[in-house]
Amino acid sequence: MPYSPITGQLGVLLFESEVIGRHPAKYFLDESCGYIWVENPTWLEEAYSDAIALTDTGIVARNLSNLRRVSTAMRANGLADARGIDIGGGYGLFVRGLRDIGLNFHWSDPYAENLLARGFEADDGTYAVATAFEVLEHLPDPLSYIKEARTKFDFETLFFSATCFDPKDLPPRDWWYWAFETGQHISFFSEQSLDYMAEQLEMQKVHLRGDLYAFTALDSLTWPSRWQQWRIRKAFRRASLTQQDYEDMKQRVKSMQLKR
Q1: Is 228 exposed, middle or buried, given 0-12, 13-18 or 19+ CB atoms closer than 10 A?
Q2: 16, CA 20 to 30 Å: which among 94, 97, 146, 231?
Q3: Furthest-apart CA pair in the chain: how many Å?
Q4: Domains of the chain as residue ranges with CATH
Q5: How many CB atoms lie within 10 A of CB 81?
Q6: Burial profile 183-203: b = 16 or more Cβ within 10 angstroms, e = fewer
Q7: How far is 80 from 129, CA to CA, in rounded Å?
Q8: CB 23 within 8 A of CB 43
Q9: What tens digit of pLDDT does each residue of 187-203 get?
């Protein structure tokens, strides 16, 4: 029996299934914290031959929603001027969108090509805020991943998404979130498992709304009231880095041309 990558506790076999139509997979439960993982997912290179799954028809809609939610949460908590890093940034859609609404974010993803946020890759500086949307469920060891990312980027707050299950009422075999057809989802979380991870990170877990969560070292992090949201939208309606980014990239292109 394998041991949980989060707690090191012995896992309980839940079920076996085929992923990507042909690879056998075993799903184990860590009863100590309510975390489910897939043992030895040898098919990941095949699963990520494309960074974005063919079945992911909602990618743009989710990014637009996450842009609004993250910008609202950051501005409501005094983080509007914070330097940010998107870990697992995919093709760069989220980073470009955040910059277009005035948030100074950069891109990082070792497994994808940055197509839409070119010129704003991660540098050697530090970042107060990080985002990791639809990232943790793809990782064989999510806790170690966050620890390593925090060591590298030095962030105090991580906004992330999680589709949590109730460990007292485990999801059925036909749960859409297993994503057997793509083989990309290999970690599954309950609220309790996120609490455990926060404790190990020496941060607090905050459930902001829906599937939006945060791990933070700040004293408080809250979701604003409707009145506060209205004031935030009004105050930052014209905030954007789009034109500034254009000028910066134009100067970079000119400098590269002069070196030829």
Answers
A1: middle
A2: 146
A3: 64
A4: 12-235 (3.40.50.150)
A5: 11
A6: bbbbbbbbbbbbebbbeebeb
A7: 10
A8: yes
A9: 999 999 999 999 999 99
